[in-house]
Design a protein that fits this description.
Blueprint: E1 3-7, H1 14-26, E2 30-35, E3 41-43, E4 50-52, E5 55-56, E6 67-70, H2 75-79, H3 83-95, E7 99-102, H4 106-111, E8 119-120, H5 127-132, E9 136-137, E10 142-145, E11 148-151, H6 157-170, E12 182-186, H7 193-205, E13 209-214, E14 220-222, E15 229-231, E16 234-235, E17 246-249, H8 254-258, H9 262-273, E18 278-281, H10 285-290, E19 298-299, H11 306-311, E20 315-316, E21 321-325, E22 327-330, H12 336-349, E23 353-358
Length: 359
């Protein structure tokens, strides 16, 4: 049986206390209500729950519990003004015991300064506060990063409770939600519409972040088929391979413009040197020629640039997608499914696939 501390103040979110409390009792564990004072009557935000605190924060010690739960509502905003409450949260985190915060409960993690470099979620209105505290924020029903468990709202309570019970029973830190990857898309006017849209959508669906990098920031760019419009989010002069996990280069007429920009060419070289995935499709492989990174590598591309690749020392083959180390190349929009699968595989594994992995 585990003893689990619930830290609570007035106007807590009713269900975010009741549901985990009852799930823990049903599993044979002992929830304990901890407040600023012991014996104090507290009301839920919706008036459905009334509780009486069993311990004051001064009487609570991390050594006496196996886990901590922080319900949301207005309660965390009151709790974070109490130095002892903040210290208790910090003690649980440093002890490696499960700390489960839902909705506005994430405010306590920010106040305790325990989420720098950690992946979390929360109610959307406190997203910026968590990011400013150094966290990687993602929009998911439950996130586990080591011993820290976070969820967004009451609708996520089933997943939140499962994660909490899993860590109590099997140990904190046994499951980790990976940090979302940041992917740079190098784009100029007349990009191949689907070769930008499809990878962007697949990456976003997997929880990653796509950043459109152009010659200048906030420039409106049109696809070759006029089906897609994007606005660049970052100027190439402000982009660094150190800030991203991979780079994608869509085709179309865009690569011909990009290859005349020395900073774009150097950025591609930087990704190659850093050993991070570089994924180019269609005519985009021409940018790899300009960066002088294909000598001795196996690649594919749109057929019209085969001679350029061979002249640059590459071995060209006619396959839907080819992987040579961290270099991923594909021929055309018809190959986007395999292209995206390989890119997501490399991001998930964090390692290069064997040379000439073919689909």
């Amino acid at each position: 049986m585990a003893r689990v501390a619930f830290i609570v103040d007035q106007m807590f979110e009713d269900s975010e206390l009741r549901v985990p409390y009852d799930r823990l009792v049903a599993a044979g564990h002992q929830p304990v209500l901890v407040g600023v004072e012991s014996g104090k009557l507290l009301m839920g935000k919706k008036g459905r729950e009334k509780i009486t605190t069993e311990l004051s924060v001064g009487e609570a010690s991390v050594q006496d519990f196996e886990a901590l739960v922080i319900p949301g509502g207005y309660s965390p905003d009151r709790l974070r003004e109490n130095v002892s409450m903040v210290g208790l949260v910090r003690d649980f985190c440093h002890a490696g015991k499960p700390v489960a915060a839902i909705c506005h409960g994430g405010w306590m993690l920010a106040e305790a300064d325990v989420i720098e470099g950690r992946t979390v979620t929360s109610w959307p209105s406190i997203r910026t506060d968590l990011i400013n505290a150094g966290a990687h924020w993602v929009d998911r029903e439950v996130v586990e990063d080591g011993n820290i468990i976070t969820s967004r709202k009451p609708d996520d309570l089933p997943a939140f409770c499962e994660a909490l019970l899993g860590q109590i029973e099997h140990g904190a830190g046994t499951r980790v939600t990976p940090r979302p990857a940041r992917i740079a898309f190098l784009v100029d006017q007349m990009f191949e519409d689907s070769e930008l849209r499809v990878p962007c959508d697949r990456l976003s669906a997997a929880g990653h972040v796509a950043i459109v990098v152009g010659a200048v920031q906030s420039e409106k760019l049109h696809g070759r088929l006029r089906k897609q419009k994007v606005i660049t989010q970052l100027a190439v002069e402000n982009a660094s391979a150190d800030d991203f996990d991979a780079v994608v280069i869509p085709g179309g007429y865009s690569p011909d413009r990009l290859r005349t920009n020395p900073r774009m060419v150097e950025l591609v070289r930087d990704f190659i040197r850093a050993g991070k995935p570089v994924a180019a499709i269609g005519h985009a492989v021409a940018l790899l020629v300009e960066a002088d990174v294909v000598d001795g590598r196996t690649v594919t591309s749109w057929p019209s640039i085969v001679a350029d690749l061979r002249n640059a020392g590459a071995r060209w083959i006619d396959r839907d997608v080819v992987v040579d180390g961290t270099l991923i190349t594909a021929r055309s929009p018809e190959d986007l499914s395999a292209f995206c699968d390989v890119l997501l595989h490399q991001l998930a594994r964090g390692v290069a696939a064997p040379a000439e992995m073919l689909h």
